Every structure is written in C-alpha cells, then in structure tokens.
Amino acid sequence: MEQKIKSIEHEVNSFLVSSKEALENFRLKFISKKGMIPSLFDEMKQASGEEKKKVGKLLNDLKQLAEGKFKAAQEELDNSSIEPADQIDLSLPVVPNKLGNQHPLSLTRHRIIEVFEKLGFNVADGPEIEDDWHNFTALNFPPNHPAREMQDTFFIEKNPDILLRTHTSNVQIRLMKQQKPPIRSIMPGRVYRNEAISARAHCFFHQVEGLYVDKNVGFADLKQTLYHFAQEMYGKDIKIRYRPSFFPFTEPSAEIDISCLICKGAGCNICKHSGWVEIAGSGMVHPNVLKNCGIDPEEYTGFAFGMGIERVTQLLFRVNDLRLYSENDIRFLKQFKTVI
Ligand code: PHE
Q: Using a 6 Å cutoff on CB, does residue 189 contact ligand 1?
C-alpha cells in the first residue's frame, strides 16, 4: 500500500492544473468520492492495526497535499485576469472609452469659427508676445494717446517695447502686411490686460476678431454679417443694435449690443436693466491702418470687429463669474458636455 501511496503522490505532484477543465479532472481523479484517495481510505480499512496507523498517516498527508493543490489552483484560476479565449463573448457591445469634454471657451470658439467659416472667413493666428508697432502704432494709436491706457498690459521689454498683446488686432496688421486683399479672416486667441481680477475682469481673456477687406466693402456688410452671427449664435429672435463708439483703428466705430437673453429685454441684473448686452466692438477699418499696411484706402475698404469669447460664452451658458473659466474646477468644467 505504501508503494501505491507513493506513486499517487507523485501523480498528484506532477498533474498540470492550468485550466478549469484540468482542475475538474484533477478533482475527479484524486479527491471526489470515487477518486483514488477515498478508495485508498476504503482499502486501508482492511489493514491490520499497526499498518493502519502508518498508512493512515501517509494517506492523510496525501489527502492534504491533493486538497491543498486543488484549492491553490482554483484560487489562481479564479483570480487570473486572462480569460481563456473561448470564454470571451465577442458579441457583447464594446465598453466605450470615457471621453472628457471640451472647455466651455473652446466650445464657444468652435461655434464662432463654424458660423464665420460658412460665410467664407478663414482662421488666422499670430503671436501673443508682440511689439508695440503691431499691437498699437500700426493700429493708429498715437503715442501717449489715452486709448493706450484703456488697454494697459504687461511689458516684457521697454524701448523698444515688447508686450503681451491686448487684442488680436495685431493679427489684422500681420495679415494685411502679408497678403493682398481680398482678406476675409477671423482671429481667435488669448489676449492680456493689466486689470485687477474680479468676477467681471481678468488679466487675460480670449477674443475672436474679424477682418474683411476688399473693394466696395461697406457698413451694410458689417451690419448684416454680425446680425447673421448673432442669429446663428443665439437664435432667430435676437435683436441687435449699433451704438456709436470710438476705436483708433476704425472710423466710424460702433459697439454692438444684442437684446438680453436672460430677461428678453425686460431688464435684469445681467443687462443692468437696459434690456441690452454689449457683445462686440466694430467699425470700418481706418484709412491710416490700411496705409500703414501698404493697402491703398482709395481702392480698398474693410470692416473689422472683435468680441470676447468669455462674454459670448457667459450669455450662452449663463455663467456670471469670469474667474470660473480659469480655475480648473472639474465640477464646473464637466457640466459643458453638450453643444447647444
Ligand atoms: N480690438 C478691439 C478691442 O479689443 C475690438 C475691436 C476690433 C473693435 C475690431 C473694433 C474693430 O477692444
């Protein structure tokens, strides 16, 4: 009997249990009621007293060995993450990757671009670190003019002045220097101003400016283009008005207001009870600006406009504090999943 036990022990040790099937075969062969080990216990009953003791101990050891191996293999198979190929259900739908969502300002920027691209505007880009000429002088800001103070910024170098651009109008200048009319472009980008941070102002924000220079471009083109934009952005019922204003680089200049979306013109906190919200600055490109860029103002005219992406977004999503856009608070950001 001892011989038998030894050989079964050897078999137990060398049995490969690498799959659930093999494990079941192992159980049937050695441990189950009709398996080898229980039948050895039956056999043992016929042995004499002395032998029974000796064989009993050997048998118990063997039983423990087999059960231990069974348990360990079972656990390992249960925990193993690599499922055998035949257990993967290929007909199940794919678990989708979790996608993030775009920042609300990016959503708005893309929507603005979409509207203007349909009108034939392309997207132009330029540097955020700019020299005085492209940011101010070429745009007809005379030295020491108070209009410069309204756009105070951060200077990187003085004399010659290198600064963080205060508007994306610098890209208008770069475009007109590089390209002959017709020019029909919009310029989205980040701009900087030296302002104390509050719910309504920040030291940086985002703009989209537009420029259209060609023969016979008139104020009516400006009006209709921006009216179309406002309708695409905020719906067909939106009303729009132009208020005379001043920018050194446009003449005449107008501030563009839209009817307040929150109170529908009745008057509320957002529109300061006027029923109107300012949305953009605009005007006909000043002849001096065209001249500064080598374009003959007798031959060509153009219009330009500029709007703050934060402001457009605020009116789309009713966000009242500008600081939320740059705080990176995930609870705020993850609310902007859908493009409306
Ligand atoms: N550049 C102006 C600003 O940042 C906006 C503007 C652009 C106004 C074009 C008129 C024409 O305030």
A: no
Ligand 1 nearest-atom number relative to CA 139: 1
Q: Where are the alpha helices (DSSP H) in the chain?
A: 2-14, 20-26, 36-44, 49-79, 104-118, 132-135, 146-150, 169-178, 219-234, 287-292, 309-317, 330-333
Tell me, using a 6 A CB cutoff, whether residue 209 lines ligand 1: yes
For residue 292, pLDDT over 60 is answered with yes
pLDDT of amino acid 340: 42
Q: Which CATH superfamily is domain 106-333 in?
A: Bira Bifunctional Protein; Domain 2 (3.30.930.10)
184 lines ligand 1 (CB under 6 A): no
CB atoms under 10 Å from CB of 265, counted, come to 14
C-alpha distances in angstroms, 203 versus 91, 148, 242?
54, 16, 27
Ligand 1 in reach of 306 Cβ (< 6 A): yes
Residue ranges per structural domain of the chain: 2-87, 106-333
- pTM here is 0.72
- The lowest-confidence range among 45-49, 53-57, 160-164, 238-242 is 45-49
Q: Which atom of ligand 1 is nearest to the CA of 306?
A: 7
pLDDT-derived band at 111 (thresholds 50, 70, 90) equals very high
